[in-house]
Each structure stands twice: as C-alpha cells, then as structure tokens.
Design a protein that fits this description.
alpha+beta, Pnp Oxidase, Chain A, 2 domains, nine-stranded antiparallel β-sheet, 5 helices, elongated
Length: about 220
Amino acid sequence: MVSPSSSGRAGDPLPVDPSSALRDVDARADPIELFGRWFDEARTAGISLPEATALATADAEGVPSVRMVLLKTADEQGFGFFTNYESRKARELDANPRAALCFHWTELDRQVRVSGTTRRVDADESRAYFETRAEGSRIGAWASQQSRALPSRDVLEERFRAYQERWAGGSIPLPPHWGGYRLHPLTIEFWQGRPDRLHDRVVFERTHEGWAVTRLYP
C-alpha cells in the first residue's frame, strides 16, 4: 500500500538501475506492487512531491481537461485523491467517470500512466483524511467555491476570515461539498527512459483472471 501523504525529501538517492527496471517484468507481476516500489524509490530519491499527478477528465460531450492533483492512497482498491465536489473536475467525473492519471518522475526518467473508472469514496473515509489536513487547509475547503468565478481576491480572503471566526476554538467539520474519489485502474503503463530512445514500456491490462502484460515499442 502506498501512503503518499507522508512523502517528501528524505534520505540519500537510491542507486536505481534503469537498465533492469522493466527488463524482468513478466506475467506474474502485480502492477500495484510495482507502482508502490517505484513510488518509494521516487520518494527516497528526494523527488519533491512524488505524489503529484496529472488528472485527465472529460465532460459528458467528451471535451477533455487536465490538472495536477495529489495522490493520497494507492492500493488494491485504486488510486485516491480529494477535491471540492463542486469543482470542474468533480462535475466532469460525476458526468463521465472515466479518467486517467500520469506520474512523471524526471530525476528517475520514469512515467506511470493509469486509466480506469472513478467513484466517490464514502463520507467516513473523506472525513478521516480531512481531519489530517492543516487547519488552514480545512478552513480553505469551506471558503473556496472551487472553479466558480471570483470577483476579487478580497472576496476569497473575507470568506476565509469568516469561516476562521466561525470555527475558532472548535473542531472544523467536513464540508458537505468536499471529499474523495478513487480511480479503479483498468490499465497501468510503466515507462522507463533508456539510451538512444529505446525506452521500456510495459502495459498491464485488467482481465477477469487478473492482469495481462504487454511490452510496447517505445
């Protein structure tokens, strides 16, 4: 299980050997375990925010959009992240639950692409994560009407101060418009840069029996 929220710069860089990173992948490999290993190597190598990932969504008409989010969990249940349920990304996910993630760890010359279907997590899971956030971030979740037009910066700051006063000295509840999604992966592609652009690409596709593995031309 990956717990990205504890990531950051720590320790000395790992002696990662790109020449063997994907050479020995076979049909018995588990892509979730492989992702966890790559994520740990990115974190230990000192990469800033290894949990940062591009999230691609599309609306009901298929018009795409992409933005960066922070991965919070990655395990057999899927890849989890949190957002305002009134944001553009949330509206698109609710209308069209198919989505994709792309991680890019430049220092290790690696990418991981994940695509699949999404669903909202339950309120208890959202609340458990919300309570780990810094106080300012919890107040900000109440103050921000994410993706809506903002008349001025002053309006946002005034809303923040109002909620700050409202919850002063007390617990800050989970906003009804805020929570998590989990992406259930149908395909996971691992990309390892190699000399002469002869990169390694290995794709895992979910089947009824588990995962089918295919190596692609770079």
